[in-house]
Amino acid sequence: MDVSMKRRTLLKVIVLGDSGVGKTSLMNQYVYKKFIRQYKATIGADFVTKELHIDDKLVTLQIWDTAGQERFQSLGAAFYRGADCCVLVYDVNVLRSFETLQNWHEEFLKQVDPADTEAFPFILIGNKIDIDGGNSRAVSKKRAQEWCAAKGNIPYFETSAKEDYNVDEAFLCVAKTGLTHEHEQDIYFKGISETVSEAEQRGGCAC
Predict the structure, then answer these.
(1) Using H for helix, E for strand and C for coil, what is the string for the chain?
(2) Domain that holds residue 17
(3) pTM of the predicted protein model
(4) How many domains does one find in the chain?
(5) Residue 206, domain member (yes or no)
(6) pLDDT at 181 over 60
(7) Residue 106 maps to which CATH number?
Protein backbone atom coordinates (compact mmCIF):
# COMPACT_ATOMS: atom_id res chain seq x y z
CA MET A 1 0.00 0.00 0.00
CA ASP A 2 1.19 3.50 -0.84
CA VAL A 3 2.48 5.34 2.26
CA SER A 4 0.39 8.43 1.54
CA MET A 5 -2.74 6.26 1.33
CA LYS A 6 -2.02 4.87 4.78
CA ARG A 7 -1.94 8.38 6.18
CA ARG A 8 -5.26 9.44 4.69
CA THR A 9 -8.02 9.33 7.27
CA LEU A 10 -11.75 9.84 6.92
CA LEU A 11 -13.57 11.05 10.01
CA LYS A 12 -17.34 11.09 10.23
CA VAL A 13 -18.63 14.00 12.29
CA ILE A 14 -22.27 14.50 13.26
CA VAL A 15 -23.58 17.99 14.04
CA LEU A 16 -26.64 18.08 16.31
CA GLY A 17 -28.76 20.77 17.93
CA ASP A 18 -32.12 22.48 17.75
CA SER A 19 -33.43 23.92 14.52
CA GLY A 20 -32.14 27.44 13.82
CA VAL A 21 -29.03 27.38 16.05
CA GLY A 22 -26.77 27.75 12.99
CA LYS A 23 -25.53 24.20 12.28
CA THR A 24 -25.66 24.61 8.49
CA SER A 25 -24.21 28.14 8.69
CA LEU A 26 -21.24 26.90 10.73
CA MET A 27 -20.56 24.15 8.18
CA ASN A 28 -20.89 26.52 5.20
CA GLN A 29 -18.58 29.03 6.84
CA TYR A 30 -16.01 26.34 7.68
CA VAL A 31 -16.01 24.57 4.30
CA TYR A 32 -16.97 27.28 1.79
CA LYS A 33 -16.10 30.44 3.74
CA LYS A 34 -19.50 31.97 3.12
CA PHE A 35 -22.45 32.99 5.23
CA ILE A 36 -25.94 32.76 3.74
CA ARG A 37 -28.44 35.10 5.37
CA GLN A 38 -31.52 33.29 4.15
CA TYR A 39 -32.60 30.55 6.55
CA LYS A 40 -33.65 27.25 5.03
CA ALA A 41 -34.37 24.31 7.32
CA THR A 42 -32.37 21.18 6.62
CA ILE A 43 -34.60 18.28 5.68
CA GLY A 44 -33.30 14.85 6.67
CA ALA A 45 -29.51 15.02 6.56
CA ASP A 46 -26.79 16.31 4.30
CA PHE A 47 -23.00 16.31 4.49
CA VAL A 48 -20.03 18.38 3.39
CA THR A 49 -16.36 17.40 3.29
CA LYS A 50 -13.23 19.32 4.17
CA GLU A 51 -9.63 18.17 3.90
CA LEU A 52 -6.97 19.34 6.32
CA HIS A 53 -3.45 18.33 7.31
CA ILE A 54 -2.79 17.34 10.90
CA ASP A 55 0.83 16.37 11.57
CA ASP A 56 1.69 13.96 8.73
CA LYS A 57 -1.92 12.95 8.07
CA LEU A 58 -4.33 14.11 5.41
CA VAL A 59 -7.65 14.14 7.24
CA THR A 60 -10.97 14.31 5.44
CA LEU A 61 -13.78 15.50 7.67
CA GLN A 62 -17.17 14.25 6.52
CA ILE A 63 -19.50 16.57 8.42
CA TRP A 64 -23.13 15.48 8.64
CA ASP A 65 -25.76 18.14 9.17
CA THR A 66 -28.91 16.59 10.58
CA ALA A 67 -32.27 18.31 10.75
CA GLY A 68 -33.01 19.99 14.05
CA GLN A 69 -36.78 19.58 13.78
CA GLU A 70 -38.03 16.75 15.94
CA ARG A 71 -40.15 15.26 13.18
CA PHE A 72 -36.95 14.47 11.29
CA GLN A 73 -35.04 13.02 14.23
CA SER A 74 -36.06 9.46 13.38
CA LEU A 75 -34.08 9.85 10.13
CA GLY A 76 -30.95 10.44 12.15
CA ALA A 77 -30.27 6.92 13.45
CA ALA A 78 -28.70 5.61 10.23
CA PHE A 79 -26.58 8.74 9.89
CA TYR A 80 -25.22 8.48 13.43
CA ARG A 81 -23.61 5.09 12.83
CA GLY A 82 -19.85 5.04 12.40
CA ALA A 83 -19.44 8.53 13.85
CA ASP A 84 -15.99 9.50 15.15
CA CYS A 85 -17.10 12.69 16.89
CA CYS A 86 -20.34 14.51 17.68
CA VAL A 87 -20.66 18.31 17.66
CA LEU A 88 -23.49 19.73 19.77
CA VAL A 89 -24.57 23.25 18.82
CA TYR A 90 -26.79 25.73 20.66
CA ASP A 91 -27.59 29.42 20.25
CA VAL A 92 -26.20 31.45 23.17
CA ASN A 93 -29.24 33.77 22.84
CA VAL A 94 -31.86 31.02 23.12
CA LEU A 95 -32.07 29.30 26.51
CA ARG A 96 -34.27 26.49 25.15
CA SER A 97 -31.56 25.43 22.66
CA PHE A 98 -29.14 25.02 25.59
CA GLU A 99 -31.65 23.11 27.72
CA THR A 100 -32.27 20.54 24.96
CA LEU A 101 -28.55 19.67 24.69
CA GLN A 102 -29.07 16.95 27.30
CA ASN A 103 -31.66 15.29 25.01
CA TRP A 104 -29.40 15.50 21.96
CA HIS A 105 -26.49 14.07 23.96
CA GLU A 106 -28.54 11.16 25.28
CA GLU A 107 -30.23 10.44 21.95
CA PHE A 108 -26.90 10.33 20.13
CA LEU A 109 -25.40 7.86 22.62
CA LYS A 110 -28.55 5.74 22.44
CA GLN A 111 -28.40 5.56 18.63
CA VAL A 112 -24.65 5.01 18.32
CA ASP A 113 -24.27 2.80 21.40
CA PRO A 114 -20.46 3.17 21.56
CA ALA A 115 -18.30 0.63 23.39
CA ASP A 116 -17.48 3.28 26.00
CA THR A 117 -20.16 5.97 26.30
CA GLU A 118 -18.06 8.11 28.66
CA ALA A 119 -15.08 8.16 26.29
CA PHE A 120 -16.98 9.02 23.10
CA PRO A 121 -15.82 12.48 21.91
CA PHE A 122 -18.23 15.40 21.93
CA ILE A 123 -17.54 19.09 21.24
CA LEU A 124 -19.92 21.85 22.34
CA ILE A 125 -20.35 25.01 20.24
CA GLY A 126 -22.20 28.08 21.50
CA ASN A 127 -23.04 29.93 18.28
CA LYS A 128 -24.31 33.44 17.38
CA ILE A 129 -22.22 35.36 19.91
CA ASP A 130 -22.23 38.32 17.48
CA ILE A 131 -25.96 39.04 17.94
CA ASP A 132 -26.73 42.38 19.60
CA GLY A 133 -23.12 42.73 20.69
CA GLY A 134 -23.70 39.95 23.20
CA ASN A 135 -26.44 41.89 25.05
CA SER A 136 -29.23 39.44 24.22
CA ARG A 137 -27.26 36.50 25.51
CA ALA A 138 -29.33 34.00 27.53
CA VAL A 139 -26.64 31.45 28.47
CA SER A 140 -23.40 32.52 30.13
CA LYS A 141 -20.05 31.05 29.14
CA LYS A 142 -19.63 29.84 32.72
CA ARG A 143 -22.90 27.90 32.62
CA ALA A 144 -21.92 26.22 29.34
CA GLN A 145 -18.47 25.34 30.70
CA GLU A 146 -20.06 23.82 33.82
CA TRP A 147 -22.29 21.64 31.58
CA CYS A 148 -19.19 20.51 29.66
CA ALA A 149 -17.31 19.74 32.87
CA ALA A 150 -20.20 17.58 34.10
CA LYS A 151 -20.03 15.59 30.84
CA GLY A 152 -16.37 14.66 31.25
CA ASN A 153 -14.74 17.94 30.21
CA ILE A 154 -16.14 18.31 26.69
CA PRO A 155 -14.20 20.99 24.74
CA TYR A 156 -16.24 24.19 24.41
CA PHE A 157 -16.07 26.89 21.74
CA GLU A 158 -18.05 30.10 21.30
CA THR A 159 -18.49 31.00 17.65
CA SER A 160 -20.10 33.32 15.16
CA ALA A 161 -20.78 31.65 11.81
CA LYS A 162 -21.73 35.06 10.44
CA GLU A 163 -18.48 36.78 11.46
CA ASP A 164 -16.37 33.63 10.93
CA TYR A 165 -15.21 33.85 14.54
CA ASN A 166 -13.61 30.74 16.11
CA VAL A 167 -15.15 28.41 13.48
CA ASP A 168 -11.85 27.01 12.14
CA GLU A 169 -10.53 26.57 15.69
CA ALA A 170 -13.64 24.61 16.72
CA PHE A 171 -13.49 22.23 13.75
CA LEU A 172 -9.73 21.74 14.11
CA CYS A 173 -10.45 20.54 17.64
CA VAL A 174 -13.18 18.28 16.20
CA ALA A 175 -10.65 16.73 13.78
CA LYS A 176 -7.98 16.22 16.45
CA THR A 177 -10.50 14.75 18.89
CA GLY A 178 -11.91 12.47 16.21
CA LEU A 179 -8.39 11.25 15.33
CA THR A 180 -7.70 10.34 18.95
CA HIS A 181 -10.96 8.40 19.11
CA GLU A 182 -10.14 6.65 15.84
CA HIS A 183 -6.81 5.41 17.24
CA GLU A 184 -8.61 4.03 20.28
CA GLN A 185 -11.09 2.27 18.00
CA ASP A 186 -8.22 0.74 15.99
CA ILE A 187 -6.82 -0.81 19.15
CA TYR A 188 -10.27 -2.13 20.04
CA PHE A 189 -10.92 -3.56 16.55
CA LYS A 190 -7.54 -5.34 16.42
CA GLY A 191 -8.69 -7.39 19.38
CA ILE A 192 -11.91 -8.50 17.72
CA SER A 193 -10.63 -8.98 14.16
CA GLU A 194 -10.01 -12.72 14.66
CA THR A 195 -13.57 -13.30 15.79
CA VAL A 196 -14.84 -11.38 12.76
CA SER A 197 -12.83 -13.46 10.29
CA GLU A 198 -14.10 -16.68 11.89
CA ALA A 199 -17.67 -15.46 11.45
CA GLU A 200 -16.94 -14.64 7.80
CA GLN A 201 -15.53 -18.12 7.18
CA ARG A 202 -18.74 -19.59 8.51
CA GLY A 203 -20.69 -17.33 6.17
CA GLY A 204 -21.95 -15.25 9.09
CA CYS A 205 -22.42 -11.52 9.05
CA ALA A 206 -19.52 -9.45 10.35
CA CYS A 207 -21.63 -6.34 10.95
Answers:
(1) CCHHHHCEEEEEEEEECCCCCCHHHHHHHHHHCCCCCCCCCCCCEEEEEEEEEECCEEEEEEEEEECCCHHHHHHHHHHHCCCCEEEEEEECCCHHHHHCHHHHHHHHHHHHCCCCCCCCCEEEEEECCCHHHHCCCCCCHHHHHHHHHHCCCCCEEECECCCCECHHHHHHHHHHHHHHHHHHHHHHHHHHHHHHHHHHHCCCCCC
(2) 3-201
(3) 0.82
(4) 1
(5) no
(6) yes
(7) 3.40.50.300
